[in-house]
Amino acid sequence: MPELPEVEVVRRGLETHLVGRTFDTVDVLHPRAVRGNTEDLAQLLPGKRITGTGGRGKYLWLTLDDGAALVVHLRMSGQMLVGPPGGVQSPHVRIRAQLGEIQLDFVDQRTFGMWQYAPFDGEVPVPIAHIARDPFDPHFDLTATARVMRTKRSALKTVLLNQELVSGIGSIYADEAMWAARVKPWRMARALRQRDAVSVLVHAREVMERALAQGGTSFDSLYVNVNGASGYFSRSLNAYGQAGTPCVRCGTEIAKRVVGGRSSYYCPACQTL
DNA sequence: ACTTCTCCCTGTGGGC
DNA sequence: TGCCCACAGGGAGAAG
């Protein structure tokens, strides 16, 4: 579920509560939660101070005072919960860290998410080097990205989900962006006009900015929540998950179709491009 | 070299 | 009412 806006909400929360703090202990409760060597993580983190945070696409990281990073990917169900010791009682706690009087819990029901200790490769940690810039990145080149998208022999939906072309977009915001730009999800990327490819990216950025604005209010002082989704999902989605409900633009029922192996929601009447 | 498929996991919800 | 199973999701790695 968490896509760029939700990950950004989490990153901001971690920035607020964790920068300047030092890891005392790290307990890995489920080996799948760590990519790379489990022993390394538990042994390397204690004593390291958090100097900042970063993010790209659906990845986020904490920068450490040894020059390396703790890379985090929430995948579908990961949560980074910050609070007083004993505050989290979930059967899905995968990693628990103590930083002074603060406890950081990585909770992940489906165990797809992960932590990884890694050095930097320029701007980003090594495991993220292949991930493209996201639409919130000041150096994101919208025109060039649209041009590269238009070289692909795949459906637009598939191309939008390719994190090596543009990162941070998942199934939800892809569907919303295509609805806003009135482009069919199964449209071959190669067949798009430049202006339409640009329009999809502009709308993707716009819808994610609105989502971020709403998600930014969803955590209090000691609780960082991935549920930045709650307010946004129920009110503002025009396409995703809306099968059978009237399109707010034209009144036609939103339809659902599998594109590139992913369920895609669209308006059959006004998404004509 | 590029594109598509498979798999990891588990709670939810739709169908019978 | 209760059971069962398809589905959802991101991305690594395999297969096409």
Task: Give an overview in words.
- By secondary structure, this protein is an alpha+beta fold.
- It has helices at residues 4-18, 38-44, 142-149, 156-161, 171-181, 194-215, 229-236, and strands spanning 25-28, 50-56, 59-64, 69-73, 78-83, 93-99, 102-108, 114-118, 120-121, 124-125, 255-259, 262-266.
- The strands form four sheets. Strands 1-6-7-5 form a four-stranded antiparallel β-sheet.
- α1 (4-18) crosses α6.
- The longest helix has 22 residues, at 194-215.
- The two termini are 27 Å apart.
- The model is unreliable at 216-224 and 226-231 (pLDDT under 50).
- It binds a DNA duplex (16 and 16 nucleotides) through loops.
In a few lines, what is going on in this structure?
By secondary structure, the protein is of the alpha+beta class. The protein has helices at residues 4-18, 38-44, 142-149, 156-161, 171-181, 194-215, 229-236; strands spanning 25-28, 50-56, 59-64, 69-73, 78-83, 93-99, 102-108, 114-118, 120-121, 124-125, 255-259, 262-266.
